[in-house]
Design goal:
Chain lengths: ~350, ~260
Amino acid sequence: MPPAIETQDLVKEYGELRALQGLSLTVEEGEFFGLLGPNGAGKTTFINTLVGLVRKSGGDVRVFGHDVETEYQQARDAIGLAPQEFNVDRFFPIREVLMHKAGYHGIPKDEAERRADEVLKRVGIYDKRDERFDWLSGGMKRRLLLARALVTDPDLLILDEPTAGVDVQLRHDLWELVTELNEEGTTVLLTTHYIEEAERLCDRVAILNEGQKVTVATPDELKERGTDTISVALENPPSTPPSLGAYAHDAWLAGDALEVRVDDGGATAPQLLNDLEAEGYDIVDLEITRTSLEEVFVDLTRHEDRSVTRSDEGDGSEDQPPGDEQSGTEREEDFLEQGGAV
Amino acid sequence: MSIANTQLRTLIQREVLRFVRRPYNTFLPPLITNVLYFSVFGVILGSRIGSVGDVTYIQFVLPGLVVLGAMSNAFENASFSIFHGRWNEYIHEVITSPLSHTQTVGGYVISSALRGIIIGGLIVAVGFLFTTVPFAHPLYLLSFGVVTTTLFAGLGIIGGLWAEDFDHLTVMNQFLLRPLVFFGGVFYSLDQLEGLAYTASLLNPMVYMVNGVRYGMIGVTEINPNTSLLVLSGAAVVVLAIDLFLFKRGYGISD
């Protein structure tokens, strides 16, 4: 079985600006794969390339072995996408929206009805099935996007920041649901700003920055790349940090405690304690602070200027041009008030 | 039913339901407008103008008004549906689905052409309140109805993909369609034109549509109906090919 997603030297250029700069990435079938990166890293551009909303400038992109341009129908049939934007048909009740989506994938009407009801129940908004999208709350809208992605029973579920702006309860509900789907065999590609989310859910994560892959690893492997801090409370603290072995990258005093930055806090602590006792210090307490994935992420993506890439444009509403805050619906209403035809 | 048929049928159904469920926006305006047209041009002015050839003025303008309603609704349906979908980004539901480009173009064209034909039929029904027509050549009438609405549905797709703002839709209606209509022989006979004005009129597709439908309804035409049908069919094929090309390139719908 070919990988769920395979890209080779993927490039996307917007004029002079390169949103994706030779990205090569493989997501295996059945994986729960995370894409992390700051705004403008190219995460949404990457996803949109898979589903035909962005045309690549170069490189090769395949979904379950199907080229996304020459075999776009097979590639798109395998994908269920829950995007960041609320891009849902406003003309129809949400149950019909789901049925239409199923129909576009060739699912007959009776089966489409059954699936629409099933996914609405699964995401917990079945009682809103006859409402139109605009009448749903923010959390329900998020749930609907997930339902729409699921109604075609996709082999590859793509979730583009699915928990952005949702409350804790919904976030946990969504985590539970996608974990369940992944356990049932669905490959999941998740982009998120919440490091905890990636750490909790993903088998592997790729960190992107400025359209390039910085690294791909499991969350545990990434954390191992960071440093830990050992804090040793001393009975008789010195006025300056004592000299320690090469294992200590840095040492400083914080009140009565000596703090030492090391690669592996658990393995290094005994030696540190021995060294301190040998120098005559009385140890009162010991605490090891492990590196969080968030700290590793910040280290890996740190850059002087975060606003250099054009791909910000594809990365969400926060990138709307100034003065363009009016919603599509509001502008549509303006148009209709002016006598526009539909 | 094959998967491909289900996909196409779903898109057509979605598009048709969109305009059928909004009759106050889609069906009522052309009905009212045409009652006004028939009252003013047919009854009030028509009684003073008399006849054009062997038919009364109201019978003469009826086919033109049918064409006007049918083509403008076919155009507006396709352009609005595509542009509105782009504006609110829900056209992504179609684009990210496994419909072929041909199915996508076919779905928008068939549903928009259908709206044009329904509106044309409603205008005929309104016309019957004011006059009668013999339906001299019904097959020609049907053919011209299909080709005309297909052509303008195809043009509507181009408009919907090109527009960047609601203003652009208005511009297309007011500055492109409206002049074509008024210089398309709806309200006057081509015999009244001479020289350059006559020749220039032959470049206007409306002239062929109006004359073709007029031939189908009342058996009167100023241009050979087969020539008209050939010209319009050729234009429709070219426009549909452009639609297909634009969808393949992702024009207006992908970055």
